[in-house]
Amino acid sequence: SINETNVLFNLASILPVAQVNENLGSLLVFNSYAQLHRFIADNGHLYRIWPSGWQASTREYLYYSVFNDLLFPHYKVHGSIPSLTCRRFLVDWARRFYKEHALPQVPVTVNIRNNKEFGTHRNLNMESWLEFFQYCETAYPAKFIVICAASEIDERLRDCKNVILAKDYRTGVEQDLALIHSSAIHMGASSGPAAMAWFSTKPYLIVNTDLNPNLYHSEIVSQEGDFIRFAFGTAAQTFTVGVETVDLLMREFARMWGAIDLESWQSQGGYAADGKDRAFETWLR
Fold first, then answer.
1. Are 220 and 70 in contact (CB under 8 A)?
2. What are the CA-CA distances from residue 225 to residues 33, 62, 187, 228, 233 (Å)?
């Protein structure tokens, strides 16, 4: 939706996402498809183009192509897929955040989707989540860190004693991803940040997903009733179809909770020996 009239307005949201890639050499922002196509035609010989010029011109949706044509061949050869990680100083920041605001309670990230304008069918059922958080207050030594846009915050979350709103600490995209990367468990909607959990070994529950198993290679996903799993995932990594209920959240959380090393998380935050605190980056954000 970027065009010549709003390209500068959108830079504020484009740049934080772009800087997630620490290997980024340069960033070009085009204000129209015509401008992009012209650039590819004139300079394609200087670059390796992905998606191809043809895919760009037809505006092909590439989500399933990534899994079927890139990840699946890698998985067939190596038996695994690449893991997503954050830059070291961001991991250190996230661990310091949890040490200050969560531990000895176990940090669990929750990706809230409460978009009023786009794809509202994928929004979380907040009534179920509020009841779930209330149940967990006495049932589990867990601290839930809610990740979402500031405009998506449900003010009732502030009444939950075991919930932290990341945006209250003015986190950016990279920090939100670092919080997911460094948490014990991840839960919530299937919007962008959740990919950080998909490409890891941590337990996760992604609810109310609109993933279509028929569009994946038959060996990538399996579906049993309302539950979907990636072949490269663990038994504690699950997607569900349909609106989530509090019973589902309670049942699946108990299963994920049983998959973590509780003693390690409560004693040292579940981090390896190299996870000791480093100098806190006070200049960050």
1. no
2. 41, 26, 20, 8, 18
| Mean model confidence pLDDT for the chain | 89
**pLDDT over 90, % of the chain:** 61
pTM as predicted: 0.88
How far, CA to CA in Å, does 70 sit from each of 40, 66, 248? Answer: 22, 5, 33
- pLDDT 10s digits, 205-262: 999 998 889 999 989 999 999 999 999 999 999 999 989 999 999 999 999 999 999 9
Determine the residue type at 53: G
Q: Residues 208, 252: contact at Cβ < 8 Å?
A: no
Cα atoms in the Cβ-side hemisphere of radius 13 Å centred on 246: 11
270: pLDDT strictly greater than 70: no
Q: Tell me the pairing of strands 237-241 and 227-230.
A: antiparallel
Q: At residue 256, what are phi and psi to the nearest 5 degrees?
A: -70, -40
Which residues are CB-contacts of 31 (< 8 A; sequence separation ≥ 6)? 2, 3, 4, 7
Contact 264, 270 (CB under 8 A): yes
Q: How many CA atoms lie within 13 A of 102 on its CB side?
A: 32
